[in-house]
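Chapter summary example: a protein plus iron/sulfur cluster.
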Amino acid sequence: MADLATLRGLLRGLEEELVVCMRCGMCQAVCPVFGQTGREADVARGKLALLDGLLQAMLEDPEGVRARLERCLLCGSCAAQCPSGVNALGIFLKARAILAGYLGLSPAKKAIFRRLLAHPRVLDRAVAFAAVFQRLLARPVNETVGTSCGRIPAPVLAGRHFRPLAAEPFHRRCPSRETPPREGGPRVALFTGCLIDKIFPSVAEAALRVLDHRGAGVFVPPGQGCCGIPALSGGDLATFRRLVAWHLDLFDPGRFDVLVTCCATCTATLKKLWPALCEGPVAARARALAEKTMDISQFLVRRLGVAGAPGAGREGRVVTVHDPCHLKKSLGVFAEPRELIRAAGGWALREMEGSDDCCGMGGSFNLAHYELSKAIGRLKRARIAATGCEVVATGCPACMLQISDMLSQAGDAIAVRHPVELYAASLPD
Ligand code: SF4
Ligand code: SF4
């Protein structure tokens, strides 16, 4: 735990960024948490004001400060809307790390971040173990959405309908790979990410299928783990940095031209947070990797010019698109997933109201504030259902989890897919 003098020094580092906020309140209109609670303490302006007087607040009620800072989805809607360019996300993440440094991590977070997340192989083994027990404890509940629920009520599940752990994660289906490109095609590295690996391996398989079909060489190094965002969101900068260094050793930039991920959150983390929150030579290596990192839809459409699969132009089943915050607000990617779906053909794209409104997942926010998360998620579900779609497509596995939960609890028969899955399904065998 840091002493007060150290804390004062760390907080000084935030001051320059905090003064940029002119307290205009424009972030209120877009904050999904404020939209539900109407509490100034929940919106970016209120949190920034808290941080401005943080030293005093820390002396009076340190746990209260932490609780307020954690009532945030880290969706970035406020930063995207801010006329002054306040880097709210960066400030919140640094503030969480400072608080964790001062107060320490809770025993549960310490065990999860330091014993599991920080060690990709240990995490793999723990999740494989959980996947076996899941068969005993969960039962399928909505076939179209692909969700399960607990066989017996358990407080930790809170009535959730969840996408089960895959019987065979992607790292077992494809332990490693390095295939050469065809006829001058690009060499592409695939960063899998935990959720794709352990819950949605079919998404990574779809990406491989499309990349193979387009003649790309594919590099999948063994031993991949988490991008580090759960640890960073929990204030554990040390585990985050450990995971960055781990992956920088795995992904030697000399072996590929582009690194793609199928997870909006991983892409935003690799591109923005890895370089920003590491130091020295690690930061320089992270910057080099960030320059090569792209979302899979963005890469397929912008670099490979994917268009015109056999069914392209033919309209059919209705699909709507949810824009993940980390894809649209953080990276400005939103046209590409739609172009990929159009290129697949056989789909009538029908936009929902507020396609880029946050789904309410927010990682650990969903665990800590499920009722609030659910209230935000239900709005998203209603807008999806109002389109009359058969499928909702989104480029983030965390959004896929939240949307699946909301659709399934409402009894909808709407499938949740990644755009690359729709495109891969349109390719000839
Ligand atoms: S964070 Fe930006 S939008 Fe919100 S009050 Fe400050 S200046 Fe205004
Ligand atoms: S990151 Fe999202 S939830 Fe957090 S304050 Fe900003 S708009 Fe609200």
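Key point: The radius of gyration is 21 Å.
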